[in-house]
Structures are given as structure tokens and as C-alpha cells.
Protein 1
Amino acid sequence: FYLSTAADLKGFANIVNGDDGKSATDLYGKTLILTRDIDLGNHEWKPIGVTYISFRGMFDGQGHTISNLYISSGRNTGLFGSLSATVIKNLNVSGNIAVTLTNRFAEYSQEGSGAGGLASSSCGCKFINCSTDVNMDVTVANIQNNKNTLCAFYIGGLVGCLTAPTNDNGNGIVNCYSRGSVTVTANNDLGYLYVGGLVGGL
């Protein structure tokens, strides 16, 4: 699949998120290739992959840039919200994320949320030759849920949470960097808050 416009990228997101009658499973194992720079125009962006729905495949940016990413709401925020068993490579992202993260699903124990310039949540993924220049201003609120259980929040300039990293060196990030600012304000001191310039938590 080849992507060359903001509409193409949004269409890809809609499929993964199930917003057009299709499903993320339709793209499992597929390769998405960016053929040119894409300007998202500072319009509100819904991340690719939402809670419990992940993109699983390969995304090759071919050295191109997705610019003017803008997100002001959501639980798992970034260009990609949720990734699983995915390779993201040769991609640059720039823009702004200004959100308040809360424990929206308070009935579950240890449910949190996160934010990353490229991806919020990733499991078993590789990031190769990627960069972000995303300024992040994140407020964390209501960390303790109604079961009196502490929750975890992950915020990183490139990736919020990277779990089960997989490559030959046991590291899921290769030749990547982030140069945007990461500012986090917590309304209280409850719960677990992981923040990093590159990765929030492993």
C-alpha cells in the first residue's frame, strides 16, 4: 500500500481503527510505504491504533516527514496510538501534542494511558532510522482509579511505552532520536508516571 496524501494517511488510520467498516486485521502483515512528505495541517489527528486495537505490519517512511501533527485529546496519543509486532522505519514526524491524560477506564485495575511523538504504546516493535520533532505538553490527572489501584502513565518524545523489544541486540530502537520538548504536569503524586526524552518506559 502506498500513501502520498493526508487523505491516504487518514484512510489508513480509519481502517486500523475500524472507522469505515473495516478492521485492523485487514492490514495485518501488510507493508505501508510513504511516497512523499505529508502535511497534516494542524488538524486534530486521531492516532493510528486505539486502545486494544493495534496496527501490526510494517510502515516505511522512506526518509519522508509527516509534519504539523496536532493532537489535543485522547487516551493513547501519537501519530500511532497502539502498535504490536510492527516495524516502523525511515520516518520523521513533527508537530504538537497538548493533552490531558486520565484513567478513563477506571473500572479496570492499573489502567493508564500514554503519549509519544511517534507512538504511544508498542509491544514487540522495532523503530529504525526514525526521528520526532514533536513538542509535547501533557497533564496527568486522576491517576488513582475507583478501585483504589495505582495506574501507570508513559510519556516519551519518540515512544511512550516500549514493551517486549525485539531485534538481534535486544533493543527495539535503532538509530532514532527526538528533539522536541517534553513537558509533563501531574495533578497529584498517586500512581506511576514514566517520562523520557526518547522513551517513557520499557
Note: The first helix runs from residue 6 to 17.
Protein 2
Amino acid sequence: PRIDLYVNSTSSLLGNRMMNLESSGVGINMSTGAPTEALDVNGNIRSNGNVTISGVFKGATGTVCKIHILPFTDAETGNSGGTSFNNVVTKTFAKTAGTNLFGEINMNSEIGGFGTDKFESRLVLFGPTGGTSIIGENYKQNYIGHSGGGTRSSSLTDCAIYTNGTGTASSASFNIYFQAKRVSADDTIVFKQGFFKVTEIWA
């Protein structure tokens, strides 16, 4: 059984049904039809106050689900002077089921000495044990033609990674790693504070 609410401008018994309350436990339906959720609205929603949710807004494919900003300090980063990729910094975040991930990093760095130094860096996304593991493209950082002593500083903003359908169904804690290595350099690159930005996009 249910209770139907009708709106009518005439004296007839029934008019246009605007809402029905389902006693089956399914939910409340606005406009006509049967609800499939606790609140099922066939039309636009308007509010002049705040809307508070504890979950996420489920949007169309390609729309943003949520954005994670994951800051880190100088003390959390490592250096890179070896010729193999090593983990410089990592952060953990909770992924929503049904999303692709787009990861970025913004961080500062310093190199001592002078001359030509070449490094490579990349981002890695790692899901639950035995699950998703994606290695991003290698990005080159070339420091050429510097002379004199002291240090050279720079910022790294163009390193990114995209899951593109891999691990979409997963809903668990994910790690994002920033890795770096020396290609041809006689100096060590010292990484500084910064942040990861991970955008979840509905698949």
C-alpha cells in the first residue's frame, strides 16, 4: 500500500499525482512512476540552503566524483642520486568504486654543484595487494649549461598519470608514489615539499 498526493484545480476527485509514499520500504517518488531509490525525483531539484551528504554525488561518465589534495613536507621526501627508480614520496587515499583516477604532482627540488644533469621521474598508482598497479610515463628533467657553484632550484608540475579503465570497480585504499632516478648526472637532486592531486572521474 501507499499514500498518493494529488494536486487539482478542479472539483474532480483526482488530479495530477505529484508524490507517492511507498510502504514497501523502497522510498519516496516525486512525480509519477515507482521509486528505485530512497528518494527518486523525476525532474530538477532546487534548494535555497545547504545540501549535506556523507557519500558522493554520482554523476555522468567523465564528470568529477571528488578531488584528493595530499600535501607532504620536506621531511617526507627522499633524494635521488641512483640510476634506478626509487620512491621519493608516497601518500594514501580512499578510492570510490566506479571511477578512473587522474594523478598529478607539484613539488620543488634543488641540485647542488654545476654542469649538466639529467633525471627522470614518474608517478605510480598502487591499489590493494594483488590488485591495480599502474606505472605512468617517464618525465625527463634536464639541467644543461649551468656554471658556477651553489644550488639550482626548480619545480616539477608536469608529471601525471591516468588509469583509463584499469581498476575502475575497486573501492579501497590506494597509494600514489612519486619515483625518480639519475640518468646522467654527477649531482644528487633533493626533492622538497609539495602535494599530490588525485581526481576521481566517473567511468
Note: The two ends are 38 Å apart (CA to CA).
Protein 3
Amino acid sequence: LELKFNAYLALLQLDGFDYKAIRSDSESSKHYQNFIQSLVDGGFVHVCHEYPVLARELTRQVQQWIDLVTEFLRRLSADIDTLYRKFNIPAGSVVTQYSPGLSDAHNEGRTVIILQFDSGHKTVYKPKDLGPDACYFKAVEWLNSNGTPYDFGVLKVIERTGYGWVEHAKHLPMENYEEASLFFRRSGSFLALLHPYNGVDFH
């Protein structure tokens, strides 16, 4: 589509438009909107005929998205009462915001999703086995209760087959030097904990 858009802009030169001026004008979206409208008006059919692999990939992506959203909604419906209880969300709260694509896509396009309820509570959906996550939080709970110098954060986890839910970790800014110092000391403790296990990709 980037190629087609550039070709579209190049053709505008025949009507007296300055191609370079259009490309360098970051504030103007008029020509891009016109290009999109030309696709909506039938031009996209011609693009798909010209690039059949693109058409096939777009079809696959759309079907994949439908399957993933359907799967997610079924899981949410099945687990909603457990979410209320486990994460102290008021019963009957309604999801008001859905933020997908918050991780790299794996396993046919599945990604992390954050939900926000009308109560203000948030929860994290992870489409993978959360057994390692649950074991990690049990381990740091034990460390916290046995004298670790800097307590580790512990999040509640709901394990399901092939997916699960995690309590949302609220981001808080550091307000002063003492809080910054504590942050880096706790980060050091975290690295020391992960090192013996050859931990990678923790975020």
C-alpha cells in the first residue's frame, strides 16, 4: 500500500501538484485521506488483483482477528465472576476499554490485552500458560516473608489451560531521591533473583 500511495502521489504531479512538497508536509493528511477514499470507492479491488498475495494475507489476518476476539470473549465470559472475586472488582462491573496488541504476537497472532472496567479496575489477559508466573510469585512471597532486604511486588494470578489473568501493576512515578534509590535497589534484587535461573525476557 505504501508503494501504491507513492504511485498515487506521483500521478498527482500530472495535475500540477508538487510531489516533494506533499511528501514533506507532515501536517497535511488530505492526500492520504483521498487515497484511502479511492480504495474504498473500488480501487482496493484492483490492488488485490494486482497483488494476490497481499489479498490472501489480509484475508488470513482478518479471519485470525475474528477467531482471537471470539476466543477472548468466551474466556472473559467464563471467568468474569472469578475476576471479580480474585482482583476485588465490584461484581457487575462492565468492561469499558479493551487494549489489545500489548506484546509481541505469538501462537497465531495472540497478544496480551488489558481490560479496564467502569469501576476503574484493570486486569491483564495473557494468552499463554501462566504456570511459571504463578510459581514466580509464590517464590517471591516466600522471600518476602523470610527477610529479603527489599520486598518484591506480588501480583495475583488466575491460571487457566493455555491462558490466564494477572492483576494489573499500576505505574507510579518516583517523587523523590529516596524512592528512586529504592527502585534501583529493588531492581538489583530482582536481577539477583533471576540470575541463578538464567531468566530472560522479564518485563
Note: Residues 52-86 form the longest helix (35 residues).
Protein 4
Amino acid sequence: PERGKELHPTRPVHFAQRVQAAPLRPVVMLLLFISSALALAAPQFPALTGRVVDEAGILSAQAESELVAQLAAHEQSTSNQIVVVTLKSLRGYEISDYGVQLGRHWGIGQKGKNNGALLIVAPTERKGRIEVGYGLEGILTDAVSRDIIERAIKPPFRQQNYEQGIRAGVGAMLAALSGESPAQPPPVSAVGGGNFDYLYFLF
């Protein structure tokens, strides 16, 4: 009888628990691998140090100071948050993808209003973009953004005068958001065109 007890143990649950837990290990490892891969795939963003983030170093101290003052005054009067960012590199990403993720990462715009916009310039890749939050899409429409890009930003950029182009672009964006009619630089026909999303531009 004593041997029967040894052949039929009263507590076999430990083995059952190990059998059930074993399949969870590959699942946990897979989840850790996926989270690590996603972290590695995310772009590296510059720090949001203010209303102007000149990572590429293309703005003079005076221009940056004046742009910051303009953007701060606009935010105070409207609550719209506009940020200018120049990049050393897009880190191998398309500027459209990078811009969307950058806006989310920085959290531009008032909570519940989504009233932010970015003017992104990547001079090394000769690309730029106006990234607009949902709350401002009714004002900074594709047509308005196209006009700002073609008339204000691209002509100076093509002469590698990035500071002038950024100043003109910001001025035109703020004028549009304030309901004003911006000053009219040369007409679009004299500037040139191209088939592209007019929130994203080459220069």
C-alpha cells in the first residue's frame, strides 16, 4: 500500500503548472522583440526647446529671436501653436512620415483643439513641409499652403536663402491664420510648379 502512494502522488499539480506556463515564454519573448523593434524604428527627434528649433543651424540669432517673438504673440492672441524646425537630416525617413510623428511626439497644439502647425525644413535633403493639425486644416488648407509655399518660401529657398524663405513663410502662415491677406510676392507662374503634395515641397 505504501508503494501505491508513491506511484500515485497526491499532488501532481506542479507538473501541470509547468506544462501550462511553458508556452507563455515564446509569447513574452515575441512581445519583447516587437516592442524593441518598434523602438528602434521610431525616428530620433530633436528636443522641443522653443518655438524655433534650428537644428540645422541656418538661422541667425536675430532671425530666430524675431521669429520666436512673432510666434509667441500669435499664440497669445489666438492660442494657435506654430513651431519652426530645421533639421540636419530626415534620418532616412520620408518628410511626410517624419512630420506627422514629430508633431505627435512634441504634442503641438492646445489639448482638445489640435490647433498646431509645423514649418519643417530639411536643407540637406532639400525638402520642406507644412504640417497642419486638424484644428487648423479649415484655414491652412491645401490651397492656402500651396500659395504660401510657391509664393513665399520656394523663391528664396532656390537661392539658398533659407532665412528669408522661413521668415516669409511664417509671415504668410500667420497672416492666413489671422484672417489677413498676406503680401503678394511674385505670381506662382513665375516661380514654377511641380507635381507634389503642396504640404510637402522640394526646393
Note: The chain has a mean pLDDT of 80.
